[in-house]
């Protein structure tokens, strides 16, 4: 059973380009979280999704950022017209649901650098 | 909104001693409180979970306590080893109010040989 897979591991984009970050949750997991981490900072919640539904996007900037978790395929975090301030590590986590086993399993992250 | 504070950014402990990390939160008590370990350049790894009606949970050399009156959790590593050096993150599962898992900034623990 592979863990949470994120790709790419490293992504370099020029200002104004689009960044697409992918996350394949663990097999059997239907809940996905996206977090952003700046150097020396904690994980900042961005969005919580279930298959085909956004449950909570209160941590995501209203402009330029969007997330989806389609019925088939990975979850995608999309950042349009990137700016230097978007440079960070973006982590995805998955969990099997909201039952008793509530721990989140994290991927290795995508490090986005905007030049 | 809910806030989480972890006692210090960095903590140095001599090998063999017990390391104690603190997590304080404001407002309401979460349904679950979790602790994760994060190594440089890696994603966090789940360690322990404690429920709001539990006072203490143990796993090998790890112990977590949860005091809803003080709004505090303590995370202990006994007989610490240099391999325990990492950043430790406290996280609140707030499903009793909204649907998030929110994290503190973490404490960088250095175990000195």
Plain-language structure description:
- The complex is a heterodimer of chains A (115) and B (113).
- Chain A has strands at residues 5-7, 10-13, 19-24, 31-37, 43-50, 53-56, 65-68, 75-79, 88-95, 105-106, 110-114.
- By secondary structure, chain A is an all-beta fold.
- In chain A, strands 2, 4, 5, 6, 9, 10 and 11 form a seven-stranded mixed beta sheet that branches. Chain A has a four-stranded antiparallel beta sheet with strand order 1-3-8-7, with no helix packed on it.
- In chain A, β5 (43-50) and β6 (53-56) form a beta hairpin.
- Chain A starts with a strand and ends with a strand.
- In chain B, the strands form two sheets. In chain B, strands 2, 4, 5, 9, 10 and 11 form a six-stranded mixed beta sheet that branches. A five-stranded antiparallel beta sheet of chain B has the order 1-3-8-7-6, with no helix packed on it.
- Chain B has 113 residues and is mostly beta strands.
- In chain B, β9 (86-93) and β10 form a beta hairpin.
- The mean pLDDT of chain B is 90.
- In chain B, 35% of the residues are buried.
- Chain B has strands at 4-6, 10-14, 19-25, 32-38, 45-51, 56-59, 62-67, 72-77, 86-93, 101-103, 107-112.
- Chains A and B meet through β5 and β10 of A and β4, β5, β9 and β10 of B.
| Bulk shape of chain A | globular
Give the ordered list of helices and strands of chain B.
Answer: EEEEEEEEEEE
Strand portion of chain B, in percent?
A: over 45%
Q: List low-pLDDT spans of chain B.
A: none
Give the largest interface pair and sizes: A-B, 25 and 23 residues
Number of strands of chain A: 11
Instruction: Report, as a whole number of angstroms, the end-to-end distance of chain B.
Output: 41 Å
Helix content of chain A: under 10%
Q: From the structure provided, what is the oligomeric state, counting identical versus distinct chains?
A: heterodimer
Report mean pLDDT of chain A, rounded to a whole number: 92
Instruction: Give the mean pLDDT of chain B.
Output: 90
Tell me the helix content of chain B: under 10%
Summing up helix and strand content along with how strands pair, one would put the structural category of chain B as mainly beta
Q: Which structural class matches the secondary elements of chain A? A: mainly beta
Shape of chain B: globular
């Amino acid at each position: 059973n592979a863990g949470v897979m994120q790709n790419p591991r490293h992504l370099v984009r020029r200002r104004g380009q689009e960044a697409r970050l992918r996350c394949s949750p663990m097999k059997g997991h239907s809940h996905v979280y996206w977090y952003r981490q700046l150097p020396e900072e904690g994980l900042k919640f961005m969005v919580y999704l279930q298959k085909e539904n956004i449950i909570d996007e209160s941590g995501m900037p209203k402009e330029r950022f969007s997330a989806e978790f389609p019925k088939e395929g990975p979850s995608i975090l999309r950042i349009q017209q990137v700016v230097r301030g978007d440079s960070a590590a973006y982590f995805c986590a998955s969990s099997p649901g909201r039952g008793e086993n509530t721990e989140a399993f994290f991927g290795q992250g995508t490090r986005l650098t905007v030049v | 909104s809910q806030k989480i504070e972890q006692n210090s950014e960095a903590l140095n402990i001599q090998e063999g001693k017990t390391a104690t990390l603190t997590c304080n939160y404001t407002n309401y008590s979460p349904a679950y409180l979790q602790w994760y370990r994060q190594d440089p350049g890696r994603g966090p790894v789940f360690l322990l979970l404690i429920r709001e009606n539990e006072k203490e949970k143990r796993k090998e050399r790890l112990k977590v306590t949860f005091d809803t009156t003080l709004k505090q959790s303590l995370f202990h590593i006994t007989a610490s080893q240099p391999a325990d050096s990492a950043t430790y993150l406290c996280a609140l599962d707030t499903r009793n109010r909204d649907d998030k898992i929110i994290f503190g900034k973490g404490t960088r623990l250095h175990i000195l040989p």
